[in-house]
Amino acid sequence: MSGIQIHKGKLxxxxxxxxxxxxxxCKRICRAMMIGIEGYDxxxxxxxxxxxxxxxxxxxxxxxxxxxxxxxxxxxxxKNNDGSYSYFTHFYDGGTNLTETLEEEMEREKRKMLLRDIxxxxxxxxxxxxxxxxxxxxxxxxYDVYSGEEECYKxxxxxxxxxxxxxxxILYIYKSDDKNTxxxxxxxxxxxxxxxxxxxxxxxxxxxxKLDRFKDNNTEQALEHLMSMADAIIVD
Length: 236
What we know:
By secondary structure, the protein is α+β, with helices and mostly antiparallel strands. 25% of the residues lie in helices and 31% in strands.
């Protein structure tokens, strides 16, 4: 059944390696994601079939998309040259109001930073990830690619970890023993429940509840990815 869809996201250019053709780039990503070529003419078509990449000429872009529900809460602030802020917001008024929403967003605005400014993030993303820029979910299967230029804001820090919200993801950043470099990073969806639990963990409190495991409306896609890697899934 047809209907109106609201999406918000970002198109991120996949950096090419030296002398790397488009098909070679797609092949590299397909192999990393364990996507087979069966049923497709080439790796480019196979990669496009998962709905997360688009091809424009010789350029490959990763689609970082958020499907916006009418009951979602979201606010976008833009600072103007005169110091004022323009905003766009939508929220369900059963749990908050306009001024509360704007106050919370302005607090986030004041805490904004670039991902590259956290510890030695540029070196980690370039040299110590499985592949440059890749940060994986807790399950270790699915990754997003980060350049370090993404805006984020800190939601918690202790002696061992830093947690930031970057787009629609919480990045859980483990510090090395020297406390000045990144040891590892994992990520979970930045749902309200997950934000609350991560804050509790960082504060050394016992978390109430469990982390959300899939993005909204993304369970089917996640299972399709899993089934592309295995003949069966055993649920314990």
